Amino acid sequence: MMTVNWFRAPAPVARRVRAYFAPVNRVTQTPARFDPAAQGDFALDSPPTPWVDLGWIQSFTRKSTSKTAPLLTGIPAAPLDQVRETLEAHVSFEFFSWTKLTMALATGSQHMNLLTGGAVEAQQGSTASLVQLGTGDENNFAAGSMIAVDADYSGQTGFVGAPISGAYVRQPIADQDYIRRVTFNVGLVASVNSTSLTLATPLPGGAPASNAKIQAIAGFVDREGGSFYQEWSGLFVVEGTQSERIFFHYPRLQSAVGAEEVSSPLDTKHSTGLARTLLKSKFMALPVTDPMDGERVLCYRSFLPAPNALI
Predict the structure, then answer these.
(1) pTM for the full model?
(2) What is the residue range of 217's domain?
(3) Of the spans 94-98, 224-228, 250-254, which averages the highest pLDDT?
(4) Same domain, 102 and 233
(5) In a domain, 279, yes or no
(6) pLDDT per residue as tens digits for the range 37-48
(7) Are residues 164 and 68 in the same domain?
(8) Beta strand spans in the chain (E)
(9) Same domain as 32, residue 71
(10) Would the pLDDT of 146 be above 80?
(11) Do 120 and 181 have their domain in common?
């Protein structure tokens, strides 16, 4: 008689879940793809392009609300097979950090930059990490300040913002700075000299376009309501204590609720009154067509076993 060892592949043990997001091309509805076979061993602090590391999250919950129904045949009717009536799934969790991107993801509407001062042109030779300035323009910026880099708004409608759509304009508006107001192409100034700005991290959109301008920002703001929905590709990684990994890849996630926060006490044993304010988020998964076989799917769940683990 063969003896089966049911404990040779124990359930993964993990402390936390890590979140990564990548922009969806809203014009073409093209999501970011993730291939766990080729990319699954990436360093968690250095995700593959175009994924952006948003750190650890808590209270990660995913739920499928897809509905199936029996396909009946015969007299009296009896189930012959079953079919999917609807495809629907939700993901919810809490962000530990407040950044432009986490705030945008945790709200269902436009997320905007608080502009300060006027815009100046980004000069030729600018890169994603070094923005060239015109004569005297260095006086508009200081080390430690934040900037938005994008084109002037010129009356166009549709999705605006490069390379990530920050809003959808239904009718022309009178605001030359509007694209910089909603752009995700922002950076932190590490140092300033008479000819350039050195950034702490590269601009998400890469080197500024030839028509881009630079404008200082003081912070961020979002609104409750509106008709625009944030849409991103999501990747959630559970790393086990034996280096095994579980991936949940959602090609298209749209914010499903408005802005919401949750208070998490720092000391549960003593009444210090100190609490961490976390961003609470919930998303609806939208379907994509798998190019392999044409099936419509919401999520891919992948598992990479620990090295030398029995399978």
Answers:
(1) 0.89
(2) 113-221
(3) 250-254
(4) yes
(5) yes
(6) 999 999 999 999
(7) no
(8) 17-23, 52-64, 67-73, 78-86, 89-95, 111-121, 130-132, 146-151, 158-160, 167-169, 186-192, 196-199, 212-222, 231-239, 245-255, 260-265, 275-285, 288-289, 296-297, 300-304
(9) yes
(10) yes
(11) yes
